[in-house]
Amino acid sequence: MKRVHWFLLAVGLALTGCGGGGVGLPPDTTPPVIQSLQVLPDGLIVSGAEILVRVTATDDRAVQTAEVVATYPDGTEGRYAMQADDSGSGYRVGFIAQWDMSRATGTALRIQVVVADASGNQATAEKSLSTPLPPPGSPF
Description:
The protein is built from 1 helix and 8 strands, in the order αββββββββ. The chain has one domain: Immunoglobulin-like (Sandwich). It is mostly beta strands. The strands form 2 sheets. Strands 1-2-6-5 form a 4-stranded antiparallel beta sheet, with no helix packed on it. The model has no long low-confidence stretch (mean pLDDT 88).
């Protein structure tokens, strides 16, 4: 009889150590979703202007990071980490737009927002803003 108890105890411990077959969350392959992107001011942007970017984004698990990538008319790039607001799905950042007008090759400031979850899935949204024409080159 004692043997049966030890046998049952051994079987019970062995089954307990199996851990339930590894049941857990499936891999996260779903990217976040960006519902809205707002950039202020919305008119002509000059170098030295303050820019405010707001985005609303959600993920089936959680948004890990939100970042603005600003591509300036002179080809330089600025990266700005966004901060979560109190809504739970909103992110915002303010920055000063800076570029060298004498090296500008275009008339647009490109604002791209990149939102990522913990698995590295990403969503992007972008908006282009008008900038003044570059100064004319020297005639000499």
